[in-house]
Amino acid sequence: MFITAATYHDQVLKLVDSGEPVSAAVAFVGQGCDEILGRSTASVRLLCNLLSGGTNPRAIQALKAYRGIEIRHLRNLHAKVIIGDTSAIIGSANLSENGLTTNPDMGSGWHEAGWLVNDRDSLRDMDAWYQKLWAAALQVTDDDLKQAEAMWGDQNTAAFVSSGRSGARFADVHRQQVDGVPIYMCIYSDDASERAVKAASTKLSDIERSGSVVPSVSPYEIFDGWSSLPSDGPLLCFRIRANGSLVSEGAWKYISELDTSYSHRGQRHNVFFASRVRKVLEWKYGPADAKLLASALEGASESILAKHDRKGYISLHEALTIAGVDRLRD
């Protein structure tokens, strides 16, 4: 039986819910996979391609929490096959929310297609094929997951930058697009102290007197008493008002060469510089974009603050996840 995107998800669930052991060879695994395979009341084997950048390592971590699911990986796997005792599905869909969307015309997911197989000879051939691959596959180690995390981030970042160069606006960003992408955000309410402002001014003056070139930091922001700033991506800053609303204070890039500090009551306090950026990894980020993001995060501002403290930051993906936001605008 031919399967389209409209029925692919339901057919996969029907196979998983059948009570039969499931053997899946699906190259790329993403968000939502645990909610699919975790439904099975029988044993599940998952063979994926973990180390090519296409599998979300957090999805694998979620699956590892299920006692009845065994996972292995094979570097050159590209198949998408799910096998039960009495039926199997061969198709194009990966095990993820995007791969198994029921209505790709609404703007997320792909037009997938597949074939439902239930004749015994084909099932026997598929099982023999699977057993051979399973025997050659490797167990998933902690080092594998660390490597997969880096590759996942690199691939998503490259795709995100490419979209930005094509003219995308930040208001159109989707949460899945920034998964693993080095974009960070913070919420604060206080200003830099006079001591921090003086330390920053002294730092710039010292550089000028030494004859060194002062990095271009105009306009600049200083962060007083923070333990660190992100060095691999921009920081989107928001001030929280007394009524809980958020106001954007722009996007900033950390200038590590200007690090300084001051002493107060026997303690050293870091002073970090950052310069303003007009684009976020090539995506246009103007006042309207920032206002949309502020509005999307307002309801979760206290939860976000609890996550990163008053002088810290978290990834934009984590902030959107906490806020339950998939898109900034429809």
From TrEMBL:
Domain of life: Bacteria
Entry protein name: PLD-like domain-containing protein
Domain PLD phosphodiesterase stretches: 73-99
Transmembrane stretches, start-end: none
Organism: Paraburkholderia steynii
Lineage: Bacteria, Pseudomonadati, Pseudomonadota, Betaproteobacteria, Burkholderiales
GO biological process: phosphorus metabolic process
GO molecular-function terms, A-Z: catalytic activity
Pfam families in the cross-refs: PLDc_2
SUPFAM superfamilies attached to this UniProt entry: Phospholipase D/nuclease (SSF56024)
InterPro entries reported in the protein's UniProt record: PLD-like_dom, PLipase_D/transphosphatidylase
